[in-house]
């Protein structure tokens, strides 16, 4: 072995080793490589040990104590936030499921009524915000008041919870606009919308929901999907009383109880007759009928007929429409054949019917809404066309209450002397199902 004199005495790993035997030189190179790998391995072990030490000083997010996780979860207000929280790791998911179940079981409230506050009757200037209140029909208390919303001729809402979504303006198609005597876009966009229904909660399914509206004097149907820039105007039948999105299809019922459906995937969607009215009108023994479409918790389509009689008021030109009863039918589809089955009971469920999206909820305390009467129908007074509202006048609604299907009795869920309900004839109350209990804002 010789040492190059120009290199002096460098470290061992920088020395050039010359061996006359090639096999000996190869062994030396292999040994040098192994030494380097050993040093790299030792360096990696040191880094790992240092990382472990830092981890001991700063535990991972998955190791947060349960009381801290519970504290964070108590601040959440939307079910979607619970889902996002649970997507972090297994321990967070377990905490999310446990807390959500606990809150739903212990604090779940019945659907609330969004009511126009009485002080709005004495506000005359234009452009002001209206004040609303949230009323619990089970406890008969106001759970939140002084809710400011833009002043509109009519309020629309869905059972899906709080929040607002922006939509493009709704205009009549040319063929319908030709029939109208009033051609003002502002009138068309505000006053002509009769009902708004959502297929899903936009907070939970922001990319997969459908907004459906009944609009116009002839009560036509239009819809818009999430992400669309314009409305799709449905052709075919008019006179829609209610609309619902069930099992991927749009169903509508007209003023005579005839059921129609619409396939939103068609290039030109049309409303097509699906089933006749379940009862001949002259068999109902009522003066006026309202029809509602509701999806049950079992994903069954229900047709509800509300029967009313008309009686004159004392010293009043306005008629008095009073609900006398309800009939409920379940739709059966057998291939191309359809049939109705009348339901005499809702079992452990309860219906909430009104001018907005009607809903059916479980009423058993163990897995539903505590305090809600099972086998009952909660309904609001929304027959605006039968009222004449005088400014600065308070009027208690005539036809709101709860109907028990078992004994066919009618009851009230409010105090008739409470002025909170005096402006129902101005804008109908909206059934509101909170996303999570205890958080109304």
TrEMBL record:
Coiled coil: none annotated. This is KIB1-4 beta-propeller domain-containing protein. PANTHER family: F-BOX PROTEIN SKIP23-LIKE (PTHR44259:SF107), OS07G0183000 PROTEIN-RELATED (PTHR44259). Transmembrane segments: none annotated. Residues 164-404 form the KIB1-4 beta-propeller domain. It holds the Pfam family Beta-prop_KIB1-4. InterPro entries: F-box_BR-signaling (IPR050942), KIB1-4_b-propeller (IPR005174).
């Amino acid at each position: 072995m010789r040492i190059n004199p120009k290199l002096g005495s460098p470290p061992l790993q920088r020395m050039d080793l010359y061996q006359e035997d090639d096999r000996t030189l190869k062994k030396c190179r292999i040994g040098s490589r192994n030494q380097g790998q050993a040093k790299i391995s030792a360096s990696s072990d040191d880094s790992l040990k240092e990382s472990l030490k830092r981890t001991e000083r700063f535990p991972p997010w998955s190791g947060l104590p349960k009381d801290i996780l519970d504290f964070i979860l108590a601040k959440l207000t939307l079910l979607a936030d619970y889902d996002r929280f649970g997507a972090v790791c297994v321990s967070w998911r377990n905490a999310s499921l446990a807390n959500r179940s606990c809150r739903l079981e212990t604090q779940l409230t019945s659907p609330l009524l969004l009511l126009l506050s009485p002080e709005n009757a004495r506000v005359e200037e234009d452009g002001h915000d209206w004040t609303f209140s949230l009323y619990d029909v089970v406890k008969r208390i106001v759970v939140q008041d002084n809710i400011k919303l833009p002043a509109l001729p009519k309020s629309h809402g869905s059972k899906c919870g709080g929040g607002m979504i922006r939509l493009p303006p709704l205009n009549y198609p040319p063929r319908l606009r030709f029939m109208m005597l009033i051609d003002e876009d502002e009138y068309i966009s505000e006053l002509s919308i009769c009902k708004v229904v959502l297929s899903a909660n936009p907070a939970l399914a922001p990319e997969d929901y459908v907004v459906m509206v009944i609009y116009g004097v002839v009560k036509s149907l239009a819809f818009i999907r999430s992400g669309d820039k314009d409305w799709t105007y449905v052709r075919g039948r008019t006179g829609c009383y209610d609309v619902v999105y069930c099992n991927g299809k749009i169903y509508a019922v007209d003023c005579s109880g005839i059921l129609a459906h619409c396939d939103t995937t068609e290039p030109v969607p049309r409303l097509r007759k699906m089933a006749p009215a379940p009862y001949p009108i002259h068999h109902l023994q009522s003066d006026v009928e309202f029809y509602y479409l509701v999806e049950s918790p079992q994903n069954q389509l229900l047709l509800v007929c509300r029967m009313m009689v008309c009686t004159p008021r004392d010293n009043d030109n306005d008629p008095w429409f009073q609900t006398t009863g309800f009939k409920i039918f379940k739709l059966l589809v057998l291939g191309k054949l359809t049939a109705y089955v009348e339901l005499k009971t809702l079992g452990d469920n309860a219906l909430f019917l009104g001018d907005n999206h009607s809903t059916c909820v479980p009423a058993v305390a163990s897995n539903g809404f505590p305090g809600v009467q099972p086998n009952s129908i909660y309904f609001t007074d929304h027959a605006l066309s039968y009222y004449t509202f005088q400014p600065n006048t308070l009027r208690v609604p005539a036809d709101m209450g709860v109907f028990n299907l078992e004994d066919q009795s009618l009851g009230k869920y409010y105090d008739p002397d409470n002025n909170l309900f005096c402006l129902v004839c101005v804008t109908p109350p909206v059934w509101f199902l909170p996303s999570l209990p205890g958080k109304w804002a």
